[in-house]
Amino acid sequence: MRHFFIPLGCLLALSACQENPKPKDTDSMKNEFNYPPTKEEVVEDDYFGTKVADPYRWLEDDKSAETAQWVKEQSQFTSDYLKTIPYLSTIKDQLSKLWNYEKAGAPFVEGDYTYYYKNNGLQDQSVLYRKDKDGKEEVFLDPNTFAADGTTSLASINFSKDGSLVCYLISEAGSDWKKAIVLNAKTKEPIGDPIVDVKFGGGAWRGNEGFYYSSYDKPQGSQLSEKTDQNKLYYHKLGTSQKEDILVFGGTPEEKNRYVDGYVTDDQRFLVISGADATSGNKLFLKDLKNEKAPLITILGDFSSDTYVIDTKGDKLYLYTNLNAPNGKVVVTDIKNPTPEHWKDLIPENENVLDVITAGGYIFAKYTVAALTEVKQYDFTGKFVRDIKLPSIGVAGGFSAKENQKDTYFWFTNTCTPTSIYKLNIESGNYEQYWKPAINFNSNEYESKQVFYTSKDGTKVPMTITYKKTTKLDGSAPTLLYGYGGFNAITSPYFGVSIAVWMNNGGVYATANIRGGGEYGKKWHDAGTKFQKQNVFDDFIAAAEYLIKEKYTSSEKLAIKGASNGGLLVGAVMTQRPDLMRVAFPDVGVMDMLRYHKFTAGAGWAYDYGTSDDSKEMFDYLYKYSPVHNVKEGTCYPATMVSTADHDDRVVPAHSFKFAAQLQKKQACRDVPVLIRIETNAGHGAGTPVSKMIEQHADEQSFALWNMGYKELPNK
User: Fold this and answer.
1) CATH code at 447-707
2) How far apart (Å, rounded) are the C-alpha atoms in residues 512 and 541?
3) Are 643 and 656 in contact (CB under 8 A)?
4) What residues are labeled active site?
5) Which residue of 70, 396, 576, 583 shows the fewest CB atoms closer than 10 Å?
């Protein structure tokens, strides 16, 4: 069983607004900003006859001293600005104080031990503990000891079937390139040397002999930005060196896949191989591990669906798929006839989006209903057993356990409810609270509601709005609007300390479940891809307009925030409707839509975006909304703090560098700041130390309130 560690606690952030000629005339905003100079070079590309200038191309070179100097100067400028905000330290103290409570993850059993993650409050990384059968607790892995500054994180951990061996992956400075380390789970003694250059999958055990992992060939240039286009699956046998590892899949023209993953069925009978060319859709293969010479069995030979193996029982193969079922379903087939024409529905598709987990010989079907969770239990004949009635309306996860276990655990949260853990008896369906956080937060003081608003083309879009009950909803409340809208990802209403602090300071927090995400399955996702991408931006704009119309806020008091694909969302919306918000936070965003596919694994995002090389029509569409290319001279843009990280090898920082440079040059309201916040020894977000999270949230919330005109915190 493979356990992927998700940092405990949610890191959500800010929001959107309207009408932006100039900020209110406060003393702090009267002078023009003298930004560090950014040189321009004559660089021009020809796309189907259209000449496109790229004057800041030189900032793509992350190894150059010139780029490093630019980063240093911009970082100093941003730091100097933020230090002038009188309540920055107050908000940081508020975050630190509220963040300082014990957090825990759902337990899982491996071998003779029960493992669980725990954080005492302000530890940079959560610690993996375990208890033996007598209840004796000990630290198993403490990532805080991996690096003095807390920037090396535990990315995932995978135990052998009997729990005697463990392979864990570490990420240094937030990089997607990881190291795999093997231990004797009982003694915690290391076995062999670390396996390096693991990327996008690793640690799937084959008995106790070895494990599978994914990697790319080492780039010739910068490992942080060079294109990596061909993922490969390797097998590492314990007791051998990495140079002896066996290439299992990939590496030939006919097997070229940008993402490859391998995992072993619970009965140890088959290796399952998933190969994908993009972030949506995968081929699927089986290999009989009892016969080394056995050929790969093809289950799916194209990328037309997202399909994976749930379990095997004897000769029966159980699959999750969205093939001809956009919301997902469970099918069963015989291993001798595994292709789609032989599949039989076990849990048919319905109107809600399905995710599945197995535990104790049952299937737990987790449905997303307008971004909220419902859970149903089935047996392996497809018979409905029961509904699992959750503690309240919100989001739940977990429900995983081995086949012989009698209990499973799940977590539950919503925007007003800190995450708690529950222990569920699999046979009876009864559960009890296993762990509750001791946090100084009274959920009864807050109001959270789900609304449905109408987008530009008439589509109904859900949004969750949360605030303290004492907040005046007369259009004057500072409001943070968060969105993502891509890659079939579901944006659910989680509790986050930063959100709580924002609300305690008089703010409203809103999450829009816009198209491009997975809230309503594959159709909702596809409605926000390629030539439909403008739907995503229109949905977010409509969310902001709804908040203003319904008197939650005004354009003077609205901030918008999104990260990664959500950073693109913010960049596109603020360049299309700069009048709509007062403040914008495009974090680690995909900002150059003409060149994104030329870096690291970016070409794999083409399912959502298309590329500028595809056709003139695709180029024209991308060029029309690409944030870097749509900053216009003579336009007043909102106060903006672009965020990125120096070790982001997912969305390379050059995207943010170039966008910030364009904004600083062309911002017509010269007394409205454009800053870039560049985190050091950090990547795309996963594994970010708690101390760095607190600093970023304090910087953003202070920046937002200051540029909304608050000389002191609005709750005073």
Assistant:
1) 3.40.50.1820
2) 10
3) yes
4) 564, 684
5) 576
DSSP state of 517: S
* Helix runs in 83-193, H state only: 88-99
Cα dist. 687→197, 399, 648, 663 in Å? 17, 24, 12, 30
- Name the 3-class secondary structure at 701: helix
Q: Are 277 and 263 in contact (CB under 8 A)?
A: no
Q: Which two tokens stand for residue 412?
A: 């539950």
Residue 31: its pLDDT value, please? 56
CB 500 within 8 A of CB 9: no
How many CB atoms within 10 Å of residue 662? 23
Q: Which of 97, 90, 102, 92 is nearest to 126 (CA)?
A: 102
Q: Give CA–CA dist 473/495, Å, rounded.
A: 21
Rg of the Cα atoms in the chain: 25
Question: What's the maximum distance between 2 C-alpha atoms anywhere in the chain?
Answer: 76
Question: pTM of whole model > 0.85?
Answer: yes
Residue type, 532: Q
Q: Residue written as tokens 């193969």?
A: 317
Low-confidence stretches of the chain (pLDDT < 70) are 1-31, 716
Q: SS3 for 609-654, per residue?
A: HCCCCCCHHHHHHHHHHCHHHCCCCCECCCEEEEEEECCCCCCCCH
Look up residue 358 and give its two tokens. Answer: 């197995």
Within a 10 A sphere around the Cβ of 518, how many other Cβ atoms? 22
In the prediction, which pLDDT does 716 show?
Answer: 65
- Length of the chain in terms of residues written: 716
Report yes or no: 58 and 67 within 8 Å, Cβ to Cβ.
yes
Q: Which residue has the tokens 């809600």?
A: 352
Q: What is the pLDDT of residue 701?
A: 98
**What span, in angstroms and rounded, lies between the C-alpha atoms of 467 and 19?**
23
Between CA 167 and CA 221 the distance in angstroms is 29
H/E element, 367: strand 362-369
Q: What stretch of H or E contains 586? A: strand 583-587
The amino acid at residue 485 is: G
Cα gap 674→575, rounded to integer Å: 13
Amino acid type, 420: S
- Secondary-structure percent of the chain, ordered helix, strand, coil, rounded to 5: 20, 35, 45
- Contacts by residues 265-270 (CB-CB < 8 Å, ≥ 24 positions apart): 265/309, 265/311, 265/312, 266/1, 266/161, 266/311, 266/312, 266/402, 266/403, 267/312, 267/313, 268/161, 268/206, 268/207, 269/312, 270/309, 270/312, 270/335
At which residue do the structure tokens 């990881």 appear? 178
End-to-end CA distance of the chain: 51
Write out pLDDT tens, residues 269-294. Answer: 999 999 999 999 999 999 999 988 88
DSSP code of residue 519: T
Element (H, E) at 410: strand 407-414
DSSP per-residue letters across 163-216: SSEEEEEEEETT-S-EEEEEEETTT--B-SPPEEEEEEEEEEEETTTEEEEEE-
Give the sign of the dihedral formed by CA 595, CA 592, CA 660, CA 15.
Answer: negative
Phi, psi of 149, rounded to the nearest 5 degrees: -95, 10
How much is the pLDDT for 589?
A: 97
Residue boundaries of the structural domains of the chain = 447-707
Strand order in the sheet with 431-435: 395-400, 407-414, 417-425, 431-435
Q: Rounded distance, CA 273 to CA 294, Å? A: 14
What are the two backbone dihedrals, phi and then psi, of residue 43, each rounded to the nearest 5 degrees?
A: -130, 130
CA separation for the pair 216, 222 (Å, rounded): 14
